[in-house]
Amino acid sequence: MRIANRRRPLSILVALCIVLTGVRCGTAPTDQDGKDGNKIVVNFWNGFTGPDGKTMAAIVKQFQTENPDVEVKMQIIPWGTYYDKLTLSLAYGGAPDVFIMQAARFTEYASFNTLKPMAPLIASAKPALTEKDFAAVPWKATMYHGTQYALPLDMHPIGLYYNTKLFKEAGIVDDKGQAKPPTTLTEFLDDAKKLTKDTDGDGRPDQWGFAYTFQHTNWLTFAHQFGGDIVTPDGKAGSMSSPACLQATHLMCDLIYKYKIAPKPEGVDSWLAFRQGKVAMAMEGIYMLSSLQQQPGLQFAGAPVPQFGPKQGIWGGSHLLCQPATISPERSQAAWRLMRYLSDHSLAWGGGGQVPARLDVQDSPKFQEMTVQAQFAREKGYVVYDPQIPKANALNQFVDPAIEAALTQFQTPEDAMHDADQRIDQLLKRP
Amino acid sequence: MSIAIEKTQAPARAVARKLLRRDDGWAGLLFALPHLILFIVFLLGPTLYGFFISLHQWHVLAKEHPFVGLSNYKAALGDDIFWLALRNTAYFVILVVPLGNLVSLLLALGVAGVKRFGTFYKVAFYVPVVISIAVVSVLWQWLYNTEIGLLNLYLKTAINGLRHMGMALPPFQPLPWLSDPHWAMPSIALMSIWWGAGGNMILYLAGINNIAPDYYEAATIDGANTWQRFWAITWPLLKPTTLFCLVFSVLGAFQIFGQSYVLYGGGSGPGRAGLTLVLYMYQQGFSQYEIGYGAAIAYLLFAIVLIFTGIQFKLMQGREEK
Q1: Which residue of chain A has the CA closest to B61?
Q2: Is the ipTM of this complex over 0.85?
């Protein structure tokens, strides 16, 4: 008895300590009204972990000096975990006031009513901002069921990067002696053959004409040029095994196994190989530009993607600026000022490797001086995004493995694409 | 007489005992509280809630989560990728459990036999267990690299050396450790064995050290050689340890996640060869945000592991009774 009695206060103490520590954690100071002193706090989330983050930070800093009543708290979260964090914050609270949404993910978030309609803010903008101020493709990507939920910041088309030094060495030059990028499939194959070399004579090429760096965007580029896509135009069924997509996939495989101008995409870091001058051509997004600019000794240029199929078409994406549906009117206004500012000042953003969505910026002489960006911007008329359906991202769990299986000959293109379509159909039918 | 006293005193004693017990109970409960709270909040609660979720169509962003009964389970059982993940997981278990335990046992026998630097070897073999699987995977990702990996470099040197000595070997082709569907799971298994062998080694070592030296002395006097001593003494007396290690290896192996997750960057590996059940659950729940479906996969895995555990504990009980 006695012993037990002595024990009791101690155990109560322990329990109390635990409860108290718990309580202390729960009452961390919050700024629910969004005010820090007299300033309105605007939380801004994005995934710009590369040099683009520095560009963005500089624009934001400039905004703050011009808008002393607003304090922007910018948080950069790696894309790999960005959407996990964003999703949880939108579902359970703590969402930022402005955030970047990639066009490929936009429809998913819009379909769950997590984004704030933007039309009233855009309509009230002074000076006025209308559809005519923006490139058509990114503008269209901000719509879901006729309602606008975002302001397009930029577009990032895929383009052809080529190593000018290797081109000149292989004698692929124009009249002025400058490296001449291919524009058609025949030119592309001819050039790539000249650029694929076995320099040490071990029977395996150690310089390649071309390489697949990001299979998803590369496949969509080929597919669009043959008139194919991941899903049917109504978005209700998979179409990866359509004749158009199969033609595109076969051509992609032929580049590796028939023409032997590209390495088998297996255990090779193709982008690194391009940066190191072991690959002469690669199709990558404009956002990869800064990674090339930082590569010492690399001589490269950008050009529109050659036309491989019967029509023009390339993969592209956009960064869209969004607000959460639950934002308060006061913060929404402050957040809108930041969004507008970013849009107005997107020339600097373009410098980091983007094509600004604003047409006035695209047409400005300063943007035209950015050679690679201006070259890639020539493709803006035929950029195609990932399917704009709510389950677009979910489909990628079938799309990307199928492309890989075909390119590595793990499956025939027919089997791989057929499997993907079956799974896509199954998923699209699920409620 | 004595019996009568017992009887009269008995009720009072019983009451006192009960009081004491009740008191102890409260104090005990309070002492257990720190663990209990954590257990309920972070384990029991989520486990039961997970089952509840698995009965609903539950997208993280959706405002409503309609009850769908068992259709998530039905969907999973009709999902060929679920079965592929199960097959991969089973393949991993089959590779890792017997081989891993064999390696652990051999290491333990070796370490038990060394006269000098015993502690050094013990620590050396145990160190990988202490490293986080994420670190191990990043490390092995480089070792396994097809073009510049250390493993292929050593193999190349070895094969070229043998060819030089006149052996009729084909020229060296770099092994696609992680990028070939057929190699993926064996590679993951090899890495996992390296990572985990030290843990079971310690258990086997304890088992070996528990065997009285008299047996060996007697056997040596009878003229038994090393193999006979192992086969007639060490192996049978180690059986409880072996069984224990096997049971826990199986449980651990079924839950393999970190290896594939890190090696394949959240993907599923070539031809989905690295996709395991827990990884698939994670992908569905936390990449696709379909946590209802993910929870159903988790419960299916739970059922499989439960059955295995049941069988193995039956086996273990049977041994102990003997």
Answers
A1: A91
A2: no
